[in-house]
Specification:
two-stranded antiparallel ribbon, 44% helix, mainly alpha
Protein backbone atom coordinates (compact mmCIF):
# COMPACT_ATOMS: atom_id res chain seq x y z
CA UNK A 1 0.00 0.00 0.00
CA UNK A 2 1.28 3.46 -0.95
CA UNK A 3 1.34 5.13 2.48
CA UNK A 4 2.15 8.68 3.43
CA UNK A 5 5.86 9.19 3.86
CA UNK A 6 7.29 8.90 7.35
CA UNK A 7 9.60 11.79 6.47
CA UNK A 8 7.01 14.42 5.52
CA UNK A 9 7.49 16.37 8.76
CA UNK A 10 11.28 16.55 8.43
CA UNK A 11 11.04 17.63 4.81
CA UNK A 12 8.39 20.20 5.70
CA UNK A 13 10.67 21.63 8.42
CA UNK A 14 13.52 21.89 5.92
CA UNK A 15 11.19 23.56 3.40
CA UNK A 16 10.09 26.11 6.01
CA UNK A 17 13.70 26.89 6.90
CA UNK A 18 14.61 27.64 3.31
CA UNK A 19 11.51 29.77 2.70
CA UNK A 20 11.95 31.63 5.98
CA UNK A 21 15.57 32.41 5.11
CA UNK A 22 14.57 33.63 1.64
CA UNK A 23 11.90 35.80 3.27
CA UNK A 24 14.34 37.16 5.88
CA UNK A 25 16.68 38.61 3.27
CA UNK A 26 14.02 39.81 0.87
CA UNK A 27 12.33 41.66 3.74
CA UNK A 28 15.59 43.54 4.34
CA UNK A 29 15.41 45.04 0.86
CA UNK A 30 13.63 48.33 0.14
CA UNK A 31 13.92 51.42 -2.03
CA UNK A 32 15.70 53.53 0.59
CA UNK A 33 18.58 51.07 1.07
CA UNK A 34 21.80 51.52 -0.86
CA UNK A 35 22.25 49.61 -4.09
CA UNK A 36 25.10 47.59 -2.61
CA UNK A 37 23.06 46.60 0.45
CA UNK A 38 20.13 45.57 -1.73
CA UNK A 39 22.45 43.50 -3.92
CA UNK A 40 23.86 41.68 -0.89
CA UNK A 41 20.41 40.86 0.45
CA UNK A 42 19.17 39.86 -3.01
CA UNK A 43 21.98 37.35 -3.42
CA UNK A 44 21.28 35.80 -0.01
CA UNK A 45 17.52 35.65 -0.58
CA UNK A 46 18.08 34.19 -4.04
CA UNK A 47 20.44 31.58 -2.58
CA UNK A 48 17.77 30.40 -0.14
CA UNK A 49 15.12 30.45 -2.85
CA UNK A 50 17.38 28.17 -4.91
CA UNK A 51 17.74 25.85 -1.93
CA UNK A 52 13.93 25.69 -1.74
CA UNK A 53 13.51 25.36 -5.51
CA UNK A 54 13.46 21.54 -5.82
CA UNK A 55 10.58 21.44 -3.33
CA UNK A 56 8.79 24.39 -4.94
CA UNK A 57 8.96 22.74 -8.38
CA UNK A 58 7.54 19.53 -6.93
CA UNK A 59 4.83 20.90 -4.67
CA UNK A 60 4.02 24.47 -5.76
CA UNK A 61 4.71 24.62 -9.48
CA UNK A 62 2.51 27.62 -10.27
CA UNK A 63 4.38 29.73 -7.74
CA UNK A 64 7.65 28.38 -9.12
CA UNK A 65 6.68 29.68 -12.57
CA UNK A 66 5.79 33.05 -11.09
CA UNK A 67 8.91 33.46 -8.93
CA UNK A 68 11.22 32.13 -11.64
CA UNK A 69 9.66 34.03 -14.55
CA UNK A 70 11.87 35.79 -17.11
CA UNK A 71 11.57 39.56 -17.28
CA UNK A 72 9.08 39.43 -20.14
CA UNK A 73 5.49 40.57 -20.35
CA UNK A 74 3.08 37.63 -20.16
CA UNK A 75 -0.24 37.74 -21.98
CA UNK A 76 -3.02 35.34 -20.98
CA UNK A 77 -5.94 35.08 -23.40
CA UNK A 78 -9.18 33.29 -22.53
CA UNK A 79 -11.41 35.01 -25.11
CA UNK A 80 -11.82 38.36 -26.83
CA UNK A 81 -13.14 39.97 -23.64
CA UNK A 82 -10.66 38.42 -21.22
CA UNK A 83 -7.10 39.35 -22.10
CA UNK A 84 -4.67 39.77 -19.21
CA UNK A 85 -1.29 41.49 -19.52
CA UNK A 86 0.89 40.41 -16.62
CA UNK A 87 4.18 42.10 -15.84
CA UNK A 88 6.47 39.62 -14.07
CA UNK A 89 7.54 40.24 -10.47
CA UNK A 90 10.20 37.60 -10.08
CA UNK A 91 13.76 37.09 -8.90
CA UNK A 92 14.90 37.48 -12.51
CA UNK A 93 13.26 40.91 -12.66
CA UNK A 94 15.03 41.86 -9.42
CA UNK A 95 18.36 40.73 -10.86
CA UNK A 96 17.92 42.88 -13.94
CA UNK A 97 16.81 45.89 -11.87
CA UNK A 98 19.79 45.65 -9.54
CA UNK A 99 22.48 44.73 -12.04
CA UNK A 100 21.25 46.27 -15.28
CA UNK A 101 22.73 49.33 -16.96
CA UNK A 102 19.52 51.37 -16.72
CA UNK A 103 18.88 53.52 -13.61
CA UNK A 104 16.72 51.70 -11.06
CA UNK A 105 13.05 52.57 -11.04
CA UNK A 106 12.08 52.73 -7.36
CA UNK A 107 8.46 52.23 -8.31
CA UNK A 108 9.24 49.02 -10.17
CA UNK A 109 11.63 47.84 -7.45
CA UNK A 110 8.98 48.42 -4.80
CA UNK A 111 6.38 46.54 -6.86
CA UNK A 112 8.59 43.47 -7.25
CA UNK A 113 9.73 43.51 -3.62
CA UNK A 114 6.17 43.88 -2.34
CA UNK A 115 5.10 40.88 -4.36
CA UNK A 116 7.95 38.60 -3.25
CA UNK A 117 7.78 39.77 0.37
CA UNK A 118 4.14 38.67 0.45
CA UNK A 119 4.35 35.67 -1.87
CA UNK A 120 7.01 33.64 -0.06
CA UNK A 121 5.19 33.64 3.31
CA UNK A 122 1.99 32.83 1.39
CA UNK A 123 3.70 29.76 -0.07
CA UNK A 124 4.73 28.68 3.41
CA UNK A 125 1.18 28.96 4.73
CA UNK A 126 -0.39 27.13 1.80
CA UNK A 127 2.03 24.25 1.30
CA UNK A 128 0.82 20.70 0.61
CA UNK A 129 3.58 18.80 2.37
CA UNK A 130 1.25 16.79 4.56
CA UNK A 131 0.24 13.72 2.57
CA UNK A 132 3.13 13.16 0.16
CA UNK A 133 4.35 9.64 -0.55
CA UNK A 134 7.95 8.47 -0.82
CA UNK A 135 7.52 8.33 -4.62
CA UNK A 136 6.67 12.05 -4.62
CA UNK A 137 9.87 12.93 -2.79
CA UNK A 138 11.97 10.73 -5.09
CA UNK A 139 10.33 12.33 -8.11
CA UNK A 140 11.21 15.70 -6.59
CA UNK A 141 14.86 14.67 -6.63
CA UNK A 142 14.61 13.39 -10.22
CA UNK A 143 12.88 16.54 -11.49
CA UNK A 144 15.52 18.69 -9.80
CA UNK A 145 18.30 16.74 -11.53
CA UNK A 146 16.57 17.14 -14.91
CA UNK A 147 15.88 20.83 -14.29
CA UNK A 148 19.51 21.58 -13.42
CA UNK A 149 20.83 19.88 -16.57
CA UNK A 150 18.28 21.27 -19.01
CA UNK A 151 17.71 24.76 -17.64
CA UNK A 152 19.67 25.47 -14.47
CA UNK A 153 23.18 25.42 -15.95
CA UNK A 154 22.19 27.30 -19.14
CA UNK A 155 21.80 30.77 -17.65
CA UNK A 156 18.02 30.72 -18.02
CA UNK A 157 17.52 31.70 -14.35
CA UNK A 158 20.37 34.19 -14.05
CA UNK A 159 20.66 36.12 -17.31
CA UNK A 160 22.56 39.10 -15.90
CA UNK A 161 24.90 37.52 -13.36
CA UNK A 162 25.37 34.10 -15.00
CA UNK A 163 25.39 32.71 -11.44
CA UNK A 164 23.96 29.41 -12.63
CA UNK A 165 26.73 27.08 -11.44
CA UNK A 166 26.56 28.34 -7.85
CA UNK A 167 22.79 28.08 -7.93
CA UNK A 168 23.03 24.49 -9.17
CA UNK A 169 25.19 23.78 -6.13
CA UNK A 170 22.43 25.10 -3.86
CA UNK A 171 19.98 22.75 -5.61
CA UNK A 172 22.29 19.79 -5.09
CA UNK A 173 22.82 20.64 -1.43
CA UNK A 174 19.06 20.42 -0.98
CA UNK A 175 19.02 17.04 -2.75
CA UNK A 176 21.72 15.90 -0.33
CA UNK A 177 19.64 17.15 2.60
CA UNK A 178 16.55 15.23 1.43
CA UNK A 179 18.59 12.05 1.00
CA UNK A 180 20.05 12.52 4.48
CA UNK A 181 16.51 12.82 5.88
CA UNK A 182 15.80 9.49 4.15
CA UNK A 183 18.99 7.75 5.32
CA UNK A 184 17.11 5.25 7.52
CA UNK A 185 14.90 4.30 4.57
CA UNK A 186 17.83 2.85 2.61
CA UNK A 187 18.09 -0.91 3.02
CA UNK A 188 21.27 -0.81 0.95
CA UNK A 189 23.54 1.59 2.83
CA UNK A 190 26.10 1.35 0.03
CA UNK A 191 23.55 3.04 -2.26
CA UNK A 192 23.34 6.00 0.10
CA UNK A 193 27.14 6.15 0.07
CA UNK A 194 27.05 6.20 -3.73
CA UNK A 195 24.63 9.14 -3.62
CA UNK A 196 26.85 11.02 -1.16
CA UNK A 197 29.96 10.50 -3.27
CA UNK A 198 28.10 11.42 -6.45
CA UNK A 199 26.74 14.69 -5.07
CA UNK A 200 30.13 15.61 -3.61
CA UNK A 201 31.73 14.97 -7.02
CA UNK A 202 28.99 16.97 -8.73
CA UNK A 203 29.48 19.97 -6.46
CA UNK A 204 33.26 19.82 -6.98
CA UNK A 205 32.65 19.77 -10.73
CA UNK A 206 30.33 22.77 -10.55
CA UNK A 207 32.97 24.67 -8.58
CA UNK A 208 35.71 23.84 -11.06
CA UNK A 209 34.89 26.28 -13.86
CA UNK A 210 33.33 29.61 -14.70
CA UNK A 211 30.07 29.99 -16.61
CA UNK A 212 31.56 30.39 -20.08
CA UNK A 213 34.17 27.62 -19.83
CA UNK A 214 32.08 25.01 -17.96
CA UNK A 215 32.02 21.63 -19.72
CA UNK A 216 28.30 20.91 -19.83
CA UNK A 217 28.72 17.96 -22.17
CA UNK A 218 30.85 16.05 -19.67
CA UNK A 219 28.65 17.17 -16.78
CA UNK A 220 25.49 15.76 -18.34
CA UNK A 221 27.16 12.59 -19.61
CA UNK A 222 29.04 11.74 -16.43
CA UNK A 223 26.97 13.33 -13.68
CA UNK A 224 23.34 13.85 -14.74
CA UNK A 225 22.94 10.48 -16.42
CA UNK A 226 24.61 8.67 -13.53
CA UNK A 227 22.19 10.36 -11.13
CA UNK A 228 19.20 9.25 -13.18
CA UNK A 229 20.48 5.70 -12.76
CA UNK A 230 20.79 6.22 -9.00
CA UNK A 231 17.16 7.36 -8.90
CA UNK A 232 16.15 4.02 -10.43
CA UNK A 233 18.29 2.12 -7.91
CA UNK A 234 16.70 4.12 -5.09
CA UNK A 235 13.20 3.34 -6.31
CA UNK A 236 14.03 -0.36 -6.18
CA UNK A 237 15.63 0.01 -2.76
CA UNK A 238 12.60 1.83 -1.37
CA UNK A 239 10.25 -0.62 -3.12
CA UNK A 240 8.32 2.13 -4.90
CA UNK A 241 7.22 2.79 -8.49
CA UNK A 242 7.40 6.31 -9.91
CA UNK A 243 4.29 7.59 -11.68
CA UNK A 244 4.25 6.78 -15.40
CA UNK A 245 1.41 9.16 -16.32
CA UNK A 246 3.71 12.15 -16.80
CA UNK A 247 5.54 13.59 -19.84
CA UNK A 248 8.83 12.00 -18.74
CA UNK A 249 9.58 8.31 -18.54
CA UNK A 250 10.62 7.89 -14.88
CA UNK A 251 13.02 5.02 -15.59
CA UNK A 252 15.07 6.64 -18.38
CA UNK A 253 18.73 6.83 -17.39
CA UNK A 254 20.02 9.12 -20.12
CA UNK A 255 18.79 12.62 -20.91
CA UNK A 256 19.16 11.89 -24.63
CA UNK A 257 17.70 8.39 -24.80
CA UNK A 258 14.80 7.82 -27.17
CA UNK A 259 12.67 6.82 -24.19
CA UNK A 260 13.48 9.93 -22.09
CA UNK A 261 10.02 11.25 -22.92
CA UNK A 262 6.86 9.29 -22.21
CA UNK A 263 5.46 9.45 -25.72
CA UNK A 264 1.98 8.30 -24.63
CA UNK A 265 1.55 11.60 -22.79
CA UNK A 266 1.97 13.46 -26.09
CA UNK A 267 -1.03 11.67 -27.63
CA UNK A 268 -4.76 12.24 -27.25
CA UNK A 269 -5.85 10.67 -23.95
CA UNK A 270 -7.44 7.27 -24.52
CA UNK A 271 -6.15 6.96 -28.08
CA UNK A 272 -4.91 3.59 -29.39
CA UNK A 273 -1.36 2.57 -28.62
CA UNK A 274 1.54 3.50 -30.86
CA UNK A 275 2.47 0.24 -32.61
CA UNK A 276 4.64 -0.58 -35.65
CA UNK A 277 1.48 -1.57 -37.55
CA UNK A 278 -0.28 1.75 -36.88
CA UNK A 279 2.93 3.61 -37.76
CA UNK A 280 3.06 1.73 -41.08
CA UNK A 281 -0.57 2.55 -41.82
CA UNK A 282 0.01 6.19 -40.94
CA UNK A 283 3.02 6.31 -43.24
CA UNK A 284 0.93 4.95 -46.10
CA UNK A 285 -1.75 7.60 -45.51
CA UNK A 286 0.93 10.29 -45.11
CA UNK A 287 2.22 9.51 -48.61
CA UNK A 288 -1.19 9.11 -50.27
CA UNK A 289 -1.85 11.93 -52.74
CA UNK A 290 -5.40 10.79 -53.42
CA UNK A 291 -6.53 12.21 -50.07
CA UNK A 292 -6.36 15.78 -51.42
CA UNK A 293 -8.88 17.53 -53.67
CA UNK A 294 -6.46 17.36 -56.61
CA UNK A 295 -5.62 13.68 -56.03
CA UNK A 296 -1.89 14.47 -56.22
CA UNK A 297 -0.93 16.26 -52.98
CA UNK A 298 0.01 14.31 -49.88
CA UNK A 299 1.55 15.23 -46.56
CA UNK A 300 4.85 14.07 -48.06
CA UNK A 301 4.59 16.65 -50.85
CA UNK A 302 5.65 19.38 -48.44
CA UNK A 303 7.29 17.21 -45.77
CA UNK A 304 10.07 15.33 -47.56
CA UNK A 305 11.94 12.72 -45.53
CA UNK A 306 15.38 13.53 -46.97
CA UNK A 307 14.90 17.14 -45.89
CA UNK A 308 13.89 16.04 -42.38
CA UNK A 309 10.26 16.48 -43.45
CA UNK A 310 10.58 20.03 -44.77
CA UNK A 311 10.53 21.06 -48.44
CA UNK A 312 13.59 23.25 -49.03
CA UNK A 313 11.59 26.34 -50.03
CA UNK A 314 11.67 29.70 -48.18
CA UNK A 315 7.89 29.43 -47.90
CA UNK A 316 5.70 26.40 -48.48
CA UNK A 317 4.10 25.87 -51.86
CA UNK A 318 0.42 24.94 -51.98
CA UNK A 319 -1.97 23.93 -54.73
CA UNK A 320 -0.81 25.10 -58.19
CA UNK A 321 2.49 26.29 -56.71
CA UNK A 322 0.91 29.09 -54.69
CA UNK A 323 3.39 30.41 -52.10
CA UNK A 324 1.95 30.10 -48.61
CA UNK A 325 2.50 32.41 -45.68
CA UNK A 326 5.33 30.62 -43.91
CA UNK A 327 8.20 28.17 -44.13
CA UNK A 328 7.38 24.46 -43.89
CA UNK A 329 8.34 23.31 -40.38
CA UNK A 330 10.06 19.99 -39.81
CA UNK A 331 7.93 17.13 -38.55
CA UNK A 332 10.91 15.51 -36.86
CA UNK A 333 10.35 15.73 -33.09
CA UNK A 334 7.03 17.51 -33.71
CA UNK A 335 5.52 15.05 -31.24
CA UNK A 336 7.31 16.87 -28.41
CA UNK A 337 5.35 20.09 -28.71
CA UNK A 338 2.10 21.09 -27.09
CA UNK A 339 0.92 23.33 -29.94
CA UNK A 340 1.34 23.17 -33.74
CA UNK A 341 2.06 25.71 -36.49
CA UNK A 342 4.32 28.71 -36.02
CA UNK A 343 1.45 30.67 -34.46
CA UNK A 344 0.29 27.81 -32.23
CA UNK A 345 -3.23 27.70 -33.62
CA UNK A 346 -3.56 23.90 -33.34
CA UNK A 347 -3.50 21.97 -30.08
CA UNK A 348 -1.98 18.71 -31.32
CA UNK A 349 -1.08 16.67 -34.36
CA UNK A 350 -4.62 15.46 -35.01
CA UNK A 351 -5.87 19.06 -34.82
CA UNK A 352 -3.04 20.23 -37.06
CA UNK A 353 -4.16 17.76 -39.73
CA UNK A 354 -7.67 19.29 -39.68
CA UNK A 355 -6.19 22.70 -40.53
CA UNK A 356 -4.19 21.29 -43.46
CA UNK A 357 -7.18 19.33 -44.81
CA UNK A 358 -9.48 22.36 -44.76
CA UNK A 359 -7.01 24.93 -46.09
CA UNK A 360 -7.99 25.94 -49.62
CA UNK A 361 -4.31 26.21 -50.62
CA UNK A 362 -3.33 22.84 -49.20
CA UNK A 363 -5.53 19.72 -49.30
CA UNK A 364 -8.66 21.84 -49.94
CA UNK A 365 -11.00 19.05 -48.94
CA UNK A 366 -13.02 18.13 -45.87
CA UNK A 367 -12.78 15.40 -43.27
CA UNK A 368 -15.92 13.59 -44.39
CA UNK A 369 -14.61 13.30 -47.95
CA UNK A 370 -11.27 11.97 -46.74
CA UNK A 371 -13.11 9.43 -44.60
CA UNK A 372 -15.12 8.37 -47.65
CA UNK A 373 -11.98 7.99 -49.79
CA UNK A 374 -10.34 5.77 -47.18
CA UNK A 375 -13.50 3.66 -46.85
CA UNK A 376 -13.51 3.02 -50.59
CA UNK A 377 -9.94 1.68 -50.56
CA UNK A 378 -9.96 -2.07 -49.87
CA UNK A 379 -6.35 -2.13 -48.68
CA UNK A 380 -7.13 0.51 -46.05
CA UNK A 381 -10.27 -1.40 -45.07
CA UNK A 382 -8.20 -4.48 -44.18
CA UNK A 383 -5.76 -2.40 -42.13
CA UNK A 384 -8.48 -0.53 -40.23
CA UNK A 385 -10.29 -3.82 -39.55
CA UNK A 386 -7.26 -5.16 -37.69
CA UNK A 387 -5.93 -1.94 -36.13
CA UNK A 388 -9.03 0.14 -35.37
CA UNK A 389 -11.73 -2.49 -34.99
CA UNK A 390 -13.06 -1.78 -38.46
CA UNK A 391 -13.92 1.83 -37.57
CA UNK A 392 -12.85 4.02 -40.47
CA UNK A 393 -13.53 7.46 -39.06
CA UNK A 394 -11.76 10.71 -39.84
CA UNK A 395 -10.45 10.71 -36.26
CA UNK A 396 -8.88 7.28 -36.72
CA UNK A 397 -7.43 8.34 -40.08
CA UNK A 398 -5.91 11.39 -38.42
CA UNK A 399 -4.70 9.30 -35.51
CA UNK A 400 -2.88 6.90 -37.84
CA UNK A 401 -1.13 9.78 -39.64
CA UNK A 402 -0.30 11.44 -36.32
CA UNK A 403 1.06 8.13 -35.02
CA UNK A 404 3.50 8.01 -37.92
CA UNK A 405 4.59 11.59 -37.22
CA UNK A 406 5.07 10.71 -33.54
CA UNK A 407 7.55 8.04 -34.62
CA UNK A 408 9.82 10.63 -36.25
CA UNK A 409 11.88 11.29 -33.12
CA UNK A 410 14.62 8.66 -33.13
CA UNK A 411 17.29 10.40 -30.98
CA UNK A 412 19.82 8.73 -33.27
CA UNK A 413 22.14 11.55 -34.25
CA UNK A 414 25.90 11.60 -33.88
CA UNK A 415 25.48 13.73 -30.78
CA UNK A 416 22.95 11.35 -29.24
CA UNK A 417 25.09 8.30 -29.85
CA UNK A 418 28.07 9.99 -28.23
CA UNK A 419 26.31 11.23 -25.12
CA UNK A 420 24.54 7.86 -24.85
CA UNK A 421 27.99 6.25 -24.77
CA UNK A 422 27.59 4.04 -27.85
CA UNK A 423 30.08 6.06 -29.89
CA UNK A 424 33.12 8.24 -29.20
CA UNK A 425 33.41 10.38 -32.29
CA UNK A 426 32.63 13.98 -31.33
CA UNK A 427 35.39 16.39 -32.28
CA UNK A 428 36.70 19.07 -29.94
CA UNK A 429 34.95 21.68 -32.09
CA UNK A 430 31.59 19.87 -31.88
CA UNK A 431 31.83 19.56 -28.09
CA UNK A 432 32.74 23.23 -27.85
CA UNK A 433 29.68 24.02 -29.94
CA UNK A 434 27.40 22.13 -27.55
CA UNK A 435 28.93 23.87 -24.55
CA UNK A 436 28.45 27.25 -26.23
CA UNK A 437 24.88 26.34 -27.17
CA UNK A 438 24.16 25.47 -23.54
CA UNK A 439 26.11 28.38 -22.08
CA UNK A 440 27.63 31.55 -23.50
CA UNK A 441 25.54 31.62 -26.70
CA UNK A 442 22.32 31.19 -24.64
CA UNK A 443 20.67 29.04 -27.34
CA UNK A 444 19.41 26.51 -24.77
CA UNK A 445 17.52 29.19 -22.84
CA UNK A 446 14.90 28.85 -25.62
CA UNK A 447 15.84 25.59 -27.38
CA UNK A 448 15.67 23.29 -24.37
CA UNK A 449 17.32 19.85 -24.40
CA UNK A 450 16.82 17.08 -25.20
CA UNK A 451 14.40 17.94 -28.04
CA UNK A 452 16.15 21.31 -28.48
CA UNK A 453 12.79 23.00 -29.08
CA UNK A 454 10.58 25.28 -27.00
CA UNK A 455 8.98 22.69 -24.72
CA UNK A 456 9.94 23.82 -21.22
CA UNK A 457 11.68 21.67 -18.58
CA UNK A 458 11.22 20.09 -16.15
CA UNK A 459 7.48 19.43 -16.63
CA UNK A 460 7.57 19.61 -20.45
CA UNK A 461 3.94 20.71 -20.51
CA UNK A 462 4.11 24.04 -22.37
CA UNK A 463 5.74 25.32 -25.55
CA UNK A 464 7.42 28.73 -25.72
CA UNK A 465 6.92 31.41 -28.35
CA UNK A 466 9.43 34.16 -29.03
CA UNK A 467 9.67 37.49 -30.82
CA UNK A 468 13.13 37.70 -32.37
CA UNK A 469 12.66 40.65 -34.68
CA UNK A 470 13.18 38.51 -37.79
CA UNK A 471 13.62 40.62 -40.95
CA UNK A 472 12.01 39.98 -44.33
CA UNK A 473 15.34 40.39 -46.14
CA UNK A 474 18.72 38.78 -45.34
CA UNK A 475 20.71 42.04 -45.23
CA UNK A 476 22.40 42.74 -41.88
CA UNK A 477 23.29 46.26 -42.95
CA UNK A 478 19.84 47.30 -44.19
CA UNK A 479 17.26 44.95 -42.64
CA UNK A 480 13.50 45.45 -42.98
CA UNK A 481 11.27 43.97 -40.28
CA UNK A 482 9.07 41.11 -41.47
CA UNK A 483 5.39 42.03 -41.46
CA UNK A 484 4.02 38.55 -40.64
CA UNK A 485 1.83 39.21 -37.57
CA UNK A 486 2.50 35.82 -36.01
CA UNK A 487 0.33 35.35 -32.91
CA UNK A 488 -1.30 38.78 -33.26
CA UNK A 489 -4.43 37.14 -34.68
CA UNK A 490 -7.14 36.12 -33.99
CA UNK A 491 -7.39 38.22 -30.83
CA UNK A 492 -5.51 41.24 -32.23
CA UNK A 493 -3.21 41.55 -29.23
CA UNK A 494 -0.36 43.92 -30.06
CA UNK A 495 1.92 42.35 -27.46
CA UNK A 496 1.72 39.07 -29.42
CA UNK A 497 2.67 40.55 -32.79
CA UNK A 498 5.64 38.82 -34.47
CA UNK A 499 5.67 35.98 -31.92
CA UNK A 500 6.40 32.51 -33.30
CA UNK A 501 6.88 29.07 -31.83
CA UNK A 502 10.42 28.01 -30.96
CA UNK A 503 11.34 25.33 -33.50
CA UNK A 504 13.57 22.33 -32.89
CA UNK A 505 17.24 22.58 -33.81
CA UNK A 506 17.39 18.83 -34.40
CA UNK A 507 18.10 17.92 -38.04
CA UNK A 508 18.58 21.63 -38.72
CA UNK A 509 21.37 20.83 -41.22
CA UNK A 510 18.63 19.51 -43.53
CA UNK A 511 15.80 21.96 -42.88
CA UNK A 512 16.96 25.21 -44.47
CA UNK A 513 16.12 27.87 -45.40
CA UNK A 514 15.53 29.09 -41.86
CA UNK A 515 13.16 31.13 -39.69
CA UNK A 516 9.37 31.28 -40.13
CA UNK A 517 9.79 33.12 -43.44
CA UNK A 518 12.85 31.28 -44.78
CA UNK A 519 14.85 34.52 -44.85
CA UNK A 520 18.24 32.90 -44.12
CA UNK A 521 19.73 30.28 -46.40
CA UNK A 522 22.57 29.13 -44.15
CA UNK A 523 23.14 28.28 -40.50
CA UNK A 524 26.02 30.76 -40.50
CA UNK A 525 23.53 33.56 -41.25
CA UNK A 526 21.25 32.36 -38.47
CA UNK A 527 24.12 32.42 -35.96
CA UNK A 528 25.08 35.93 -37.11
CA UNK A 529 21.48 37.07 -36.58
CA UNK A 530 21.50 35.85 -32.97
CA UNK A 531 25.03 37.14 -32.38
CA UNK A 532 24.07 40.70 -33.27
CA UNK A 533 20.99 40.64 -31.01
CA UNK A 534 18.18 39.94 -33.45
CA UNK A 535 16.05 42.69 -34.91
CA UNK A 536 16.68 45.19 -32.12
CA UNK A 537 20.40 44.54 -32.30
CA UNK A 538 20.26 45.47 -36.00
CA UNK A 539 18.42 48.70 -35.17
CA UNK A 540 14.85 47.63 -35.94
CA UNK A 541 11.91 48.79 -33.86
CA UNK A 542 10.73 45.58 -32.14
CA UNK A 543 8.91 46.68 -28.96
CA UNK A 544 8.29 43.23 -27.51
CA UNK A 545 11.42 41.40 -28.65
CA UNK A 546 12.20 38.54 -26.27
CA UNK A 547 15.76 38.02 -27.54
CA UNK A 548 18.24 40.28 -25.68
CA UNK A 549 19.41 42.99 -28.12
CA UNK A 550 23.02 42.92 -26.92
CA UNK A 551 25.66 41.13 -28.97
CA UNK A 552 26.69 37.68 -27.75
CA UNK A 553 30.28 38.59 -28.66
CA UNK A 554 30.90 35.21 -30.24
CA UNK A 555 34.21 34.89 -32.07
CA UNK A 556 34.42 33.42 -35.57
CA UNK A 557 35.77 30.22 -34.01
CA UNK A 558 32.83 30.03 -31.62
CA UNK A 559 30.28 30.65 -34.38
CA UNK A 560 31.81 27.86 -36.47
CA UNK A 561 31.72 25.55 -33.45
CA UNK A 562 28.01 26.21 -32.96
CA UNK A 563 27.30 25.27 -36.56
CA UNK A 564 29.48 22.15 -36.21
CA UNK A 565 27.51 21.08 -33.12
CA UNK A 566 24.14 21.64 -34.76
CA UNK A 567 25.19 19.44 -37.65
CA UNK A 568 25.77 16.59 -35.17
CA UNK A 569 22.00 16.65 -34.47
CA UNK A 570 21.17 15.09 -37.85
CA UNK A 571 19.53 11.70 -37.34
CA UNK A 572 20.80 8.74 -39.35
CA UNK A 573 17.27 8.07 -40.58
CA UNK A 574 17.14 11.40 -42.45
CA UNK A 575 20.60 11.43 -44.03
CA UNK A 576 19.70 9.53 -47.22
CA UNK A 577 19.43 12.68 -49.27
CA UNK A 578 22.76 14.19 -48.21
Amino acid sequence: MDKESLYNEDIRVHYFQTLDSATHYIQKMDTIKSLEENKRNFLKSREWYKRAEPMIIAYDYENYLSMNAPNLLKVEIDDYTDIKRLKPKSYQVLEELLYGEEPISNQELDMVLSYLQARIPYMRRNHILYTQRDRHHLKMIRDAIVNIATKGITGFDSPMLANSLNEAIYNYETIAQILDIYKEAFTDKALLDLWSAEIQKTIETLKSGDFDSFDRYTFIKNRTNRQLGLVNSTARDWNIVLNTSRPLNPTATNLFDRDFFNIKQFSIPGSPAITPERIALGKQLFNDGTLSSTDNISCATCHIKEKAFTDGHPKALGINGIELQRNTPTLSYAVYQTTMFYDGRADGLEDQIVNVVNDENEFHIDLNTIEKKVRENNLYKVAFDSLYGGEITNLNVRHAIATYIRSLAPFNSKFDRNIQGTENSLTHEERLGFNLFMGKAACATCHFPPAFNGIVPPKYAETEFENLGVPKNPSFGHPVLDDDPGMYYPYEVEEKRNFFKTATVRNVELTGPYMHNGVYKTLEEVITFYNVGGGQGMGLDVPYQTLPPDSLNLSDREQKALVAFMKTLTDKEFMDGK
